[in-house]
Amino acid sequence: MGIQMNQLTKVFPNGKGIFDLSFEVKKGEVFGYLGPNGAGKSTTIRHLMGFMKPELGSAKINGMDCWKNSAEIQKTVGYLPGEIAFLDGINGLEFLELLAGMRGMKDRTYRDQLIRRLQFDVTTPIRKMSKGMKQKVGIVAAFMHDPQILILDEPTSGLDPLMQSLFVELVLEEKSKGKTILMSSHMFQEIDRTCDRVGIIKDGRLVAVEDVKNLQAKQRKLFDILVETMNDVETIKQAGIEILSIDHLRLKVAVQGDYNRFIKVLSQCHIQHLDIHTQSLEEIFMHYYDKEGSRS
Ligand SMILES: Nc1ncnc2c1ncn2[C@@H]1O[C@H](COP(=O)(O)OP(=O)(O)OP(=O)(O)O)[C@@H](O)[C@H]1O
Fold it and tell me: What is the architecture of the domain spanning 3-212?
């Protein structure tokens, strides 16, 4: 159960597309789908929603082929598109009612709670809504029928930081209910806080699938050190510490794990200034993007 892709391939006439994608999102898992612009995230998601027919391979949700069972998939899966196409001339509530009717949704309690938490006037005509307001309508539409599977394409685009945090809360609540969630994102913080695993796609190909806990364990501390003399620079260079850059008396070094040895080396130097920061997940992901970039 959950979401499976098996050698999913789609080549557009311009040669772009997605190629031989095989990965799964397990039942109850939150999976982050990352990649630079144009990598193929939305194309993958459109296949999962049954909007596109794969050229090769397959996409399945809960064992159902997404193309052959597209009507059932679109009715049950909670989907937030990257760009929402709204009908003209209706307001947010009318749009949500329309969807609720199509899905045969009876209970509006969770919908109303979501509208309250997202703090917006749902009766505003959609054509008068800001990008962020439209995104909120999209989030309510995706979550309101309490679906077991959620597929979210850049869910926080257009949301302010407060609403981004609220969104993270909503995802964590759904996760605790055992929901299966795939979300594409450029926002590393929300991936860090919500996802169990991440898949990284570049130029239509999957370049890595990683456990977020493993990535977090790989996070290194970066030290900015300003020493007093060139002798100090030499001492640090000789110590076998990973040096990222040297600018006269200023060094940037990376340390992972063995802090004692590092502190012993520093104790032999004269330090004018020391600054520490933890490598962000974003920096780790960028390493994947770059690694693959240099291969192509
Ligand atoms: N219908 C289409 N016809 C032709 N090319 C397409 C079509 N849809 C997408 N593409 C191309 O396929 C590639 C992948 O696009 P896609 O929208 O899936 O990327 P994305 O990872 O979602 O990017 P972004 O982060 O910018 O939303 C791009 O080069 C895009 O131009």
Answer: 3-Layer(aba) Sandwich (3.40)
Residue nearest to atom 26 of ligand 1 (CA): 37
CB–CB of 255/262 below 8 Å? yes
Q: Among 5, 8, 10, 16, which is best to mutate for testing ligand 1, by the most ligand atoms less than 8 A from CB?
A: 16
Per-residue model confidence as pLDDT tens digits over 251-289: 999 998 778 889 999 999 999 999 998 777 777 777 777
User: Per-residue pLDDT tens for 197-256?
Assistant: 999 999 999 999 999 988 877 778 899 999 999 999 999 999 989 999 999 999 999 998
> pTM of this prediction?
0.83
Contacting residues for 111 by C-beta, under 8 A, at least 6 apart = 96, 100, 105, 140, 144
CA 191 to chain centre: 5
Query: Three-state DSSP class for 16?
Result: coil
CA–CA distance, 145 with 49 (Å, rounded to integer): 16
CATH number of 220-278: 3.30.70.1150
